[in-house]
Amino acid sequence: MYAVVDIAGQQFKVTENTKYYVPRLKDSENSEVVFDRVLLLTDGKTTKIGNPVVDGAKVTAKVLEHLKDDKVIVFKKKRRISYKKTHGHRQHLTRIEVLKIG
Predict the structure, then answer these.
(1) Whole-angstrom Cα distance, residue 90 to residue 87?
(2) What is the pTM for the complete model shown?
(3) What are residue 60's DSSP bridge partners?
(4) Cα separation of 88 and 86, whole Å?
(5) Closest by alpha carbon to 67, among 88, 89, 95?
(6) Of 54, 71, 78, which Cα lies nearest the Cα of 6?
(7) Bond from prior residue into 23 cis (ω within 30 degrees of 0)
(8) What pLDDT is stored for residue 31 in this prediction?
(9) Rounded distance between C-alpha atoms, residue 50 and residue 48, angstroms
(10) DSSP per position, 34-96
(11) Does residue 100 contact residue 60 with C-beta atoms inside 8 Å?
(12) Which of the four pLDDT bands, split at 50, 70 and 90, describes residue 26?
């Protein structure tokens, strides 16, 4: 059984008892969060596709931790004019564990 869920504007294919990294959520650690924007729900035999969401479907997850992603280095250079710029960026993430799809 899996579902396609809209979390913070991004779509994730989730299954039960699996951990995912999603964009930073406002919920505190060790709290449960419910995602009700389920776009697709399937159990292997039947598939329900929402228009735009599946009625009555929700995904329950537990917030495990808040963290930062690995650093991404952005380097810009132009030839022969001594132009070099280096910037870095770290994305804020939340690690969740999907408890129940229903």
Answers:
(1) 11
(2) 0.84
(3) 34, 100
(4) 7
(5) 95
(6) 54
(7) no
(8) 97
(9) 6
(10) EE--EEEEE-SS-EEE-SSS-TT--EEEEEEEEEEPPPEEEEEEETTTTEEEEEEE--EEEEE
(11) yes
(12) very high
